[in-house]
Amino acid sequence: MLDSLVTSKTRIKLLLKFFSHANSSYLRSLAKEFDESTNSVRVELNRLAEAGLLVSKEEGKTKLYKANEEHPFFNEIKNMVSKFLGLDDLMERIVRRMGEVEKAYIVGDYAKGIDSGTVQMILIGKDLDRDYLDFIREKTYEKVQRKVDVTIMDTDPGDIQGILVYGK
Fold first, then answer.
1. I want to staple 103 with a disulfide (CB 3.0 to 4.6 A). Which of 25, 35, 39, 167 is the partner?
2. What start and end residues bound the annotated signal peptide (predicted)?
3. Domain identity same for 20 and 90
């Protein structure tokens, strides 16, 4: 869906990076992460900034870019990116059917805004339905063409680096 609306692959990567999580980044680190030239990334950053979707601030000799949360379409774009990644439906189904899920985190590449093809999750709760987890892994791949890697923990260790998508 998103790739039919947005024809630039670099622009899609930037939208995923900035609108799937509250990421901020520099030109050179984005070029390295995307394995693209700084010029192609710069062109797309400038286009998104001119459209008001990204904001930047100077930090020394470099610019730090992030999504413009004040843009009128910020929430719509964030929701579209979430739907594109399939995370909204995935989380809802898993949390609803797994049992007593206390917290759910997205970790790894997706937490950093990188669409690597594998969604890594950590579910925290007791007596979660592991049989359903095996079933949902297959169904999720069929639906969103992404592998789902889930780790289950009884308690939250308190130092998980990722996006808390369920719980407090």
1. 167
2. none
3. no
